Amino acid sequence: MDTLGFIKGRVGVFKDFSADRLKQLVDGSRVRSFEAKEAIMHRGDEATHFGVVLNGEVVAGSDGQMLGELKAGDTFGELSLMSGQPLLADFVAKSPCEVLLIPVSLFQSIIVAEPSAVQTISRTIADRMKMLMADPAKAAAAVRESDDPYGL
Predict the structure, then answer these.
(1) In whole angstroms, what is the distance from residue 129 CA to residue 120 CA?
(2) pLDDT tens profile 63-86
(3) Could you tell me if 88 and 141 are in contact, meaning their C-beta atoms sit under 8 angstroms apart?
(4) Tens digits of residue pLDDT in 4-60
(5) What is the C-alpha separation between 80 and 107, in angstroms, rounded?
(6) Longest dimension (CA), the chain
(7) How far is residue 14's CA from residue 17's CA, in Å, rounded to a whole number?
C-alpha cells in the first residue's frame, strides 16, 4: 500500500499537507497490523499515538457499549491528544486491519501546527460528541468511571 498517497487522498486531516510534511509524518510513524478482536488502544490509558485506519475496520467501545465503527480513512485518539485526558474508549480491530500509528510528538509538532488540520480534528471531535450525546446509553458508557481503583 502507498501510505503517503492514501493519507493524502483519503484522510481529511492531511489534505493541505505538503509532500515533504507527509513524508516526514509517515517516516516518523509506523504501520501496524491487527487481527480481529485485537486491542489497539485501551480506555483510560494516556494517548500515545494518533491512529489512522488504513484498511479493515476498528470498533470504539466502552463498558460493553459500542460507541462507533471506524473504516479506512478514519482517525482516532484526537480527543485525548488534544485535551490531555485519558482515552474514553477501547479501540479494537473488528476485522484484520492496518493502522498508521503517529506518535504524540509528531502529532504535536506537525499536525497541530497546520491550521486546516486543527479545524478538521475539531470538527471530528464535535461530530463524535454530538453522536454520543444523542444516545444516552453511549454517553453514559463513554464518561463512566471505572470501578477498578487499580485501572485494571
Answers:
(1) 14
(2) 788 888 999 999 999 999 999 999
(3) no
(4) 999 999 999 998 999 999 999 999 999 999 999 999 999 999 999 999 999 999 999
(5) 12
(6) 46
(7) 5
Radius of gyration of the chain measured on its C-alpha atoms: 15
Q: Please report the DSSP string for 87-127 in residue order.
A: PSSEEEESSSEEEEEEEHHHIIIIITTSHHHHHHHHHHHHH
Joined together, the cell numbers standing for residue 7 give: 493519507
C-beta of residue 6 within 8 angstroms of C-beta of residue 12:
no
Which residues are within 8 A (CB) of 142 and not within 5 positions of it... i.e. 6 or more apart? 62, 67, 88, 89, 132
Read off the C-alpha cell for 11.
484522510
Q: How far is CA 77 from the centre of its chain?
A: 3
Q: Looking at the DSSP assignment, which residues form a beta bridge with residue 55?
A: 98
